[in-house]
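2024-03-11 09:14:02 DEBUG pipeline.ingest accepted 1 chain
2024-03-11 09:14:02 DEBUG pipeline.ingest length=158
2024-03-11 09:14:03 DEBUG pipeline.predict start
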Amino acid sequence: MEQIQLQYRRTKKYTRLTREIVQAYPKRFSHIDPDDIEAVINTDAIISKLIARVSIVPAKLQPFLGEKILVEIWLCQWEDLNEAAKLLVLRHELEHVKEYEGRVAYDRKYKLQDHDVQEFAPFIEKFGIHWTRRGDLPNILERHIKIKSSRDNQSVLG
């Protein structure tokens, strides 16, 4: 079986920006410690459909690395986005990070939530299906935007 070796490098810029998003939206991300976030760039050009994904450092590595939230960015897709779209992608990845409710048993802070297709509907309604190509996206660190879900009146952003 052939193994694919992925190439990663740390990115201080997007680690900083992801932490700033957490700080800019304290109500939404009160459960996330900004110091627990680390962003890495995957320079492997083989994987081209993904823009970014979030994960939690595996439990067996946490004694060495801590319970870090890893935001993995695929360079081949990332380079095509403008800065506002990149911030929205980072914010979207943070939405997957939830507070772990079983801390007594596992002493864990975070868990990941899968995609909920319904979460995208208000965003697509506001910005369109090809939102990553738009040049008029708001910079979410410069101004807060609110998008209400029509089905449950919950704020998706904001």
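2024-03-11 09:14:41 DEBUG pipeline.report The radius of gyration is 16 Å.
2024-03-11 09:14:41 DEBUG pipeline.predict end
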